[in-house]
Design brief:
single chain, alpha/beta, eight-stranded parallel β-barrel, seven-stranded antiparallel β-sheet
Length: 591
Amino acid sequence: MKNNVHGGLLPAVASVFLALLLQGCSAPEPYGALPTDYQVQWQKMDRNMFVHFGPNTFSGREWGDGKEAEDLFNPTDLDCRQWARVARSAGFQGIIITAKHHDGFCLWPNPVSNHTVAQSSWMDGKGDVLRELSEACREYGLKFGVYISPWDRNDPHYGTPEYNDVFVKTLRSALSSYGPVFEQWFDGANGEGPNGKRQVYDWPLFHKTVWELQPQAIMFSDVGPGCRWVGNEQGRAGRTSWSTLNVEGYEPGSAAPPQDTLTLGNVHGGAWVAPETDVSIRPGWFWKESENGRVKSLNRLLKIYYESTGRNSLMLLNVPPDTRGHIHEIDSVRLGEFGEALSRIFSVNLAEGASAEASSSFSRRYSPSNVLDGNYDSFWTSSKDSKDATLTLALPGEKTFNRVDIGEYIPLGQRIYAFTVEVLTPEGIWKEVAKETTVGFRRIVLLDEAVTTSKIRLSFSAYAPVTINKVALYMDDIYVKENERSTPFITKLATDPVTVDLGGAKRISSFTFVPAERGQGGVIIDWTLQGSLDGKNWEDIIAEGTFDNIVNSPTDRTIDLPSPTWARHLRLVPRRTSNGVTYSVSSMSAK
């Protein structure tokens, strides 16, 4: 039995297991790395809201450079209670806010920084976003979390050993002043490019500080220790999704495991670090007026839900407030639709009233009927020597459904590596309708089409006796499966530019670059933009530009020019690409 002990916390199973032993009861053995009680409670949250808010909201940038004037941050009507109302309407359980992004600006009066709300003219320097949001969360029954980036493009200590002490004081200020914090989000970003400042982060010290101040807080990073980045920002957990991960020798940021490993996890991984799926409701992470017409559709949000929460992850949906300090009306309405849709889809469990039988059971205490009683800590376990097992539900009459919702009892570890779903046809033949891999805390199986049957059979293969605490059936008549379409793109050598003929001389004020979907073939990070009237004589329009965060979020980028420029031809010259060899481009345009 491998323990996942953090900050003196025992795995969730320890107290239950000990109680059973004291009662003289035989209990199933735990398997592999185990979650703590706090990690189990975190997983139960289902979906949370991310809030990117700060100077970038007013500048239109994704990553600020730390040189922004403090007065740039000036919401005209901050209303964190409105954020909380919107969050509740979507069924979110908590809100995580970017208390300090890479630009170093603090949304609270951090005493060890001169780049905070206290130095701004907003509310005469007496404002405190963390205070207002934490109070709003308590009022609306939501949990409160903070994102505090270790990267700081403003603090003069950054890049020196002294900075780690400054950052610890920053953590102490934020984590000791606003009540319980359910999640501490650590971004792994570090430095400003090849010639930028580099900081050697003291991660053990940072973790110790969080555990001291907020022992219940789940710490997010590429390698946890509480939960991990899922490896992309498109809202997609792995179809195979292990909560276990090998973390030895890795750190957040450039020293993290490969992105596909973060997505899939490691079977038999040494630590329990479940995936969290962060994605934005808009193309960017901070609010931009130009993206008001590009809020994700209800159908896309449902797809993300199924591919995050429905794949043993936790959905973290970013909803950025606008310059008023409000969640925009378009986003608000969409989130209301999202919450209503999920309530409708999962309101009627069609397995209610069913009976259950299994190929084997550990004991009467862990009988198959436990999967139907709605009690999280009540579960079926196959016999001690059985690693392959079947569970059959006899439904109360014929039922039509297209969602199969399964839960593995994770306090005893994650152990299922494959399973199939079969239904009994009117001819009395078992027909396979789904074949999947892992289960974990929650797995929602999307059937290709609705089925009508009176019996359903699940067959599991596992590394230890199967433990299942939930099987539910639902009918979703809202989500329409999207065909996977790839936007055409070309891949070019990192030494070759992208050249566009605008069809005539035009006065342009911005350009838009669209990489390949999911960044296939690599992406341009740093670049030079040049313009020409004849296609022969070129002048720099932007000598040194950067597409911020494009590696993790390979979406289209619109860049405003320093001033309107006449040109017929544009040329984007790569200075640095993600793989150093190639990059991909779907399109480039200007207006």
